[in-house]
Amino acid sequence: MELQLLRYFLEAAKELNITRTAAKFHIAQPAMSKQLGKLERETGRKLYVREQHGIRLTPDGILFRKRAQEIVDLEEKTLAEFAQDSTQNITGTVYIGAGETPGVAHIGRALRQLRAENPGISYRMISGDFEDVAEKLGKGLIDFGLFVGKISLKDYDCVVLPESDRWGAIVRDDDVLADRESVSPSDLRDRELLFSHQASTQGEFSEWLGFRADTLNITGTHNLAYNASVMVREGLGVLITIEGIVNTGDGSGLRFIPLMPEIRAGLVLAWKKDAILSKAAQVFRKSFMAALQEA
């Protein structure tokens, strides 16, 4: 399967119009249609259907777009690693996936030191929950993953960060819980709850409840805490998340209340065991260790 065909398809999936896609690659529209047809024959699946003003991806096309993007990203990452300057001036890109956590500041400090000594190194941060980051790390699309909470480390080498994140509830200022010093399991039984996807999969939360989490009234889940905090402001429920990733200060209209008994989530920076890291990634790992020691 030719990489250029994947690039054609990804642009067509973005534009949803074959004529505009052809123009971007400076080829004729019939030729572009022929190339996309070749891709469908190679996959053996119908990837899109024509509509009056463009095209629409089929379910197979939506899945193929995700896989095609991963392949193209991996090609670009590989070429960038091989294109590194062979002199002492290390260049390249460090790819890092991370969940939402204040602990990402450790990465920031390491990158600041890294770029001060190696200005030719850049970085690409990809945010996501555990499943997103673990999938990309497993496929080699990122070099490092910053994980929050309990994870299996059998496939990774890692460094454990010295601090942990505190779980709690975010409520509106006018909520009945707003004046509480803490939130107990009984406080959540009859409430509409918004959960981070990570919180809904963490075993320690079920242990804290003392009863099954699926008996709660979870009305929504999310990957980004900021978006969920907007739902809280709109009166859609109580958000269960970690401290420090949503503004709950004066004027925010929100308040963070810790769970009691307290739940804390550990932080781990991990990379694949026996992974052959690029020079840029190796230097980042060294800078990260140094930043932790200074902290």
Walk me through what this model shows.
The chain is an alpha/beta fold. It has 3 domains: 3-79, Winged helix-like DNA-binding domain superfamily/Winged helix DNA-binding domain (Arc Repressor Mutant, subunit A, Orthogonal Bundle); 87-163 and 266-294, 3-Layer(aba) Sandwich (D-Maltodextrin-Binding Protein, domain 2), CATH 3.40.190; 165-263, D-Maltodextrin-Binding Protein, domain 2 (3-Layer(aba) Sandwich). Helices cover 42% and strands 25% of the residues. The protein contains 11 helices and 11 strands. The protein has helices at residues 3-15, 18-24, 29-43, 59-82, 104-117, 130-138, 185-188, 197-201, 203-209, 225-233, 279-294, and strands at residues 48-51, 54-57, 92-98, 121-127, 144-148, 156-172, 192-196, 217-222, 238-242, 254-258, 264-272. The strands form 2 sheets. Strands 3, 4, 5, 6, 7, 8, 9, 10 and 11 form a 9-stranded mixed β-sheet that branches. A two-stranded antiparallel ribbon has the order 1-2. It is globular, with a radius of gyration of 23 Å. The model has no long low-confidence stretch (mean pLDDT 87).
